[in-house]
From TrEMBL, chain A:
Residues 35-149 form the Aldehyde oxidase/xanthine dehydrogenase a/b hammerhead domain. This is Xanthine dehydrogenase family protein molybdopterin-binding subunit. Gene3D superfamilies: Aldehyde oxidase/xanthine dehydrogenase, a/b hammerhead (3.90.1170.50), Aldehyde oxidase/xanthine dehydrogenase, molybdopterin binding domain (3.30.365.10). PANTHER family: ALDEHYDE OXIDASE 1-RELATED, XANTHINE DEHYDROGENASE. Transmembrane segments: none annotated. Keywords: Molybdenum, Oxidoreductase. The keyword Kinase does not apply.
TrEMBL record, chain B:
Residues 5-81 form the 2Fe-2S ferredoxin-type domain. It holds the Pfam family Fer2. Keywords: 2Fe-2S, Iron, Iron-sulfur, Metal-binding, Oxidoreductase. This is (2Fe-2S)-binding protein. It comes from Roseomonas alba.
């Protein structure tokens, strides 16, 4: 298959479960976590450490007239107070991997210079002997801001945002085919105006940064890191003028990532700079209010979309203009969410012509970036609303309409003349129509329609809806894994990946165990550390199982081959008749003798073994998996909702996520990803929203205002994991499972609410709040 | 501002005596002063439930209680749930067996909340378990696996065959 590097030794794994892969085994991660023995950011402490507290803007937009830290500095126990003048030499926080030019002037300084642009923007940093004192001192920093009007509507006409800066740093344009001709010949044109609200990952663990400088080794360490250790390491080194090898990042346990955690933020730089300059370890732990104000927001977009269709409802063209509310600065993702939205909007459908303009707009709100299924949660909502609207207009059943437009299996791999994240979109494999049938069957769609009719007859306001989605996963280009068997036979796996709590250690251990022929539970997995492996691309974009999993498979195959080659002459057998079971090299035919343990082989390969003269010692191999193309999981969401006519509350009663992910390494963990992802999608569909008043003051700064689904909001959830379309792009056929549970929730629930209300197209905005539903109910009332 | 008091209390069965600032909340005292970092601080406004500990057997938000208020009381944290020989509490074991955690940050609060709940409701329905943990936010799992773990633990604690 093109786009994939296959070494001579990397066999593809056969379909179906193996000894370790495909098994719902328990997690390696769990024992310390259930005992309270994890190491989250706030659990990291160093002798002599001081605590940092950030003073933040309390106005959305204004000129920063003065920052007076006199009283704060005078407080006993305060070590230092910094304002922008103290960090003037540190460049703004950069962004990575975008082809969009000209965004640099829009990046965020570590402390605000002459103007504040959102409530929560760092203005000063206080360093004190304990965290309570640091907070006291922060309260004493007097900030004088001259207020300016706040820009809050990303769809408003573009204007000046700050001197020399525009509210529209860039427009992302993509497309193919003759859109205007398609609209000119269309049987019908359907036009919608749709919005997705501002919400985000909101992990239960807030951010943290613990920096210390080791003068003896001239080494700067940052603990509490996550997700992108190596890129962050390189950038911290660059921004602070140090060689990368003198900076190390360490990931402990991470209390959820979801896109927002582990990006490089101003506080990371402040902590590192302070550790260097103040010569004390510096600990910063974000509080929850700061997390709501300062950690990346996401999602907020407004789409004005048109579709041209023929008389049978086949798509001829889509023309979309959307406005992405980026907030006050461009952060580490650059314009990535706009790029993803523009590139992924067509989803699973055959589309002859497409034109999209994504307006990347600044507002005086918290900066935005990725959140689980970025650009897809939004555009699946938009695209599937559009499909429902087409079905209504042409009086075609919405399921039948989708069937007519789905890309067929025979068309796979299906290249779409688009790029996403700099890589060409090629839908690598899939049987979309089959999964749609399976989903409808599993959800009992036919019987459900009858029961809905009966319940409506008895006065209930119930409805069902569905949505189809295509995800993307396995963002390359590379990741590496080094596997070593030590002289006790213990296997260590060192990966450039990271973990944000999803079970990476277990999954990589299962793949290693399968390929090498050892038990998974004894494998020691190391990740998230820049001092143990030189490169790594981290944990995001549903890439770890695909990329690091494939590298694990290849490295373990290489160690296996090495072990067999070493053992064969000693056992006086040819390597071809040998295999490895439970860490013992023995004959394939089941004879238990002669045999040799991996520990014995590792000792044979030690640095002082005469056999290794002139060779690199160790039973160890490092492999780097390369991929030019992403792989595209897909699925169907089905929802049954019931609306309370008295309150407008939408209750999701039943829900199905059907998701083809090629191969489930651990079905239990895949279900966990999908269920958790669904809960987050549910939040964005019905409950979660960062709201602002007309002056740009945030109104959602506690868990009492920003409503995350609890156990009682969860419907009866069914998960159908399909493995009908393994990816041809990697040796295990894997597609990522991290985001399919989230992707289509807004879309499916919107369709179900429409159906319950009996008002096709009624839902145009997420989240669907009770007030909106009440207005819709009133509209329908006679 | 930094007035302190010396307090004595029982933590996980051990007699502890320590100096605490009067304004320090119990979660910071357990984590910072006693080094019991298993109790997690998720919101400091009493909504998320991550910091839940047992005080005299009852679930309490350790971020909403001052350390000095715990003087003379008996506190159990997640570190105190397993047996002296290290054997996991049936709830801890069930969380492992049923994938009741992903990142693990909410887990200590879930476990302590459920310890109290199962002590009072040895044979709960699924709905009752959901209500019992409805004051604890989990951002990773979607809760179903936690509910399954709790029901399995209830069976184990009753001595029913799993």
């Amino acid at each position: 298959m093109d786009g994939t590097t296959h070494g001579p030794d990397d066999a593809r794994m056969a379909a179906g479960p193996g000894e370790a892969v495909g098994r719902a085994v328990t997690r390696l991660e769990d024992p310390p976590l259930v005992r309270g023995r994890g190491l989250f950011a706030a659990d990291v402490n160093f002798p002599r450490q001081i605590h940092m507290r950030v003073v933040r803007a309390e106005l959305a937009h204004g000129l920063l007239r003065s920052v007076d830290a006199t009283a704060a500095r005078a407080l006993p126990g305060v070590v230092a107070v910094w304002t922008s003048a103290d960090v003037a030499e540190i460049p703004s926080i950069p962004f990575r991997a975008t082809k969009v030019q000209g965004l640099e002037p829009y990046c965020q300084p570590v402390l605000a210079r002459d103007r504040v642009r959102y409530v929560g923007e760092p203005i000063a940093a206080v360093f004190a002997e304990d965290a309570y004192l640091a907070e006291d001192a922060a309260d004493l920093v007097a900030v004088d801001i001259e207020p300016l009007p706040a820009v809050l509507d990303a769809a408003a006409p573009p204007a000046e945002f700050a001197p020399g800066l525009h509210t529209e740093p860039t427009i992302v344009r993509k497309g193919f085919g003759d859109v205007d001709a398609a609209f000119a010949m269309a049987h019908a044109v359907i036009e919608l105006d749709l919005s997705v609200g501002r919400h985000s990952g909101v992990p239960l663990e807030t951010r943290g940064a613990i920096a210390r400088y080791d003068a003896a080794r001239d080494l700067l360490e940052l603990h509490g890191a996550a997700k992108k250790q190596h890129w962050n390491r390189d950038e911290i080194a660059r921004l602070l003028g140090r060689p990368p090898s003198s900076v190390h990042l360490f990931e402990g346990h991470v209390g959820g990532g979801f896109g927002v955690r582990g990006e490089l933020y101003p506080e990371d730089l402040l902590a590192c700079a302070a550790a260097l300059r103040l010569d004390r370890p510096v600990k910063w732990i974000e509080d929850r209010r700061e997390n709501f104000l300062a950690t990346n927001h996401s999602r907020q977009q407004r789409h004005r979309i048109r579709a041209a269709v023929d008389a049978e409802g086949r798509l001829l063209a889509i023309d979309d203009v959307f406005f992405h509310d980026q907030g006050a600065y461009v952060r580490t993702h650059g314009a990535r969410v706009v790029d993803l939205a523009a590139g992924m909007l067509p989803g699973p459908y055959r589309l002859p012509a497409y034109r999209v303009a994504g307006h990347f707009r600044l507002t005086n709100k918290t900066p935005a970036a990725t959140y689980r299924a970025p650009g897809r949660y939004e555009t699946t909502f938009v695209r599937e609303r559009l499909m429902d609207a087409i079905a209504t207009r042409l009086a075609i059943d919405p399921i039948e309409l989708r069937r007519r437009n789905l890309v067929a299996t025979a068309e796979m791999p299906y290249p779409r003349p688009l790029d996403v994240l700099g890589s060409d979109v090629v839908l690598d494999s899939g049987d979309y129509a089959k999964l749609l049938d399976q989903a409808l069957d599993r959800f009992g769609w036919k019987a459900l329609r009858e029961s809905i009719a009966a319940r409506r007859a008895s006065g209930e306001c119930v409805g069902a809806g569905l949505a189809f989605f295509v995800e993307k996963s396995g963002l390359g280009p590379s990741d590496g894994v080094r596997i070593t068997v030590d002289h006790t036979g213990t296997v260590e796996l060192v990966s450039g990946a990271a973990s944000v709590g999803q079970g990476v250690d277990t999954v990589l251990a299962q793949i290693c165990a399968e390929a090498l022929g050892v038990g998974y539970s004894g494998i020691r997995v190391v990740r998230g550390r820049t001092d143990r492996i030189e490169f790594g691309n981290g944990a995001h974009a549903s890439r770890v199982t695909v990329m690091s999993g494939s590298a694990t498979w290849q490295a373990a195959q290489a160690v296996r081959a090495m072990a067999l080659e070493t053992a064969a002459p000693l056992l006086q057998l040819s390597p071809e008749v040998l295999t490895i079971r439970d860490g013992i090299v023995q004959r394939k035919d089941g004879a238990t003798e002669p045999s040799m343990t991996l520990a014995e082989i590792a000792r044979q390969m030690g640095p002082n073994s005469p056999a290794m003269r002139g060779r690199t010692p160790g039973l160890t191999a490092e492999k780097w998996f390369w991929s030019d193309h992403m792989t595209y999981p897909y699925g169907v969401h089905c929802a049954l909702v019931c609306i309370d006519r008295g309150t407008g509350a939408v209750k999701v009663e039943r829900y199905l996520v059907a998701n083809d992910i090629g191969r489930a390494i651990n079905p239990m963990l895949v279900e966990g990803q999908i269920a958790g992802g669904f809960a987050q999608g549910l939040g964005g569909a019905l409950y979660e929203e960062f709201r602002y008043d007309e002056t740009g003051q945030p109104l959602s700064t506690t868990f009492a205002d920003y409503l995350i689904p609890t156990a009682t909001e969860m419907p009866a959830l069914d998960v159908l994991i399909a493995e009908d379309a393994p990816s041809p792009l990697n040796p295990l056929g894997i597609k990522g499972a991290g985001e399919g549970g989230t992707n289509a929730v807004g879309a499916a629930i919107a369709a179900a609410v429409d159906d319950a209300l009996g008002q096709p197209g009624a839902v145009t905005t997420l989240p669907i709040l009770p007030g909106t539903v009440m207005r819709l109910l009133d509209r329908a009332a006679p | 501002m930094s007035e302190t008091r010396r307090i004595t209390l029982i933590v996980n069965g051990e007699h502890r005596e320590a100096e605490t600032p009067v304004r320090q909340h119990l979660a910071d005292f357990l984590r910072g002063t006693l080094g019991l970092t298993g109790t997690h601080v998720g919101c400091e406004h009493g909504v998320c439930g991550a910091c839940t500990v047992l005080v005299d057997g009852h679930a309490v938000r350790a971020c909403l209680m001052l350390a000095v208020q715990a003087a003379g009381h008996e506190v159990t944290t997640v570190e105190g749930l397993s047996l002296a020989d290290g054997t996991l509490h049936p709830l801890q074991q069930a969380f492992c067996d049923h994938h009741g955690l992903q990142c693990g940050f909410c887990t200590p609060g879930m476990l302590t909340t459920l310890v109290e709940f199962l002590a009072e409701h040895p044979a709960p329905s699924e709905e009752e378990v959901r209500l019992a943990i409805s004051g604890n936010i989990c951002r990773c799992t979607g809760y179903d696996s936690i509910v399954a773990a709790a029901l399995a633990a209830a069976r184990a604690l009753r001595g029913d065959a799993a």
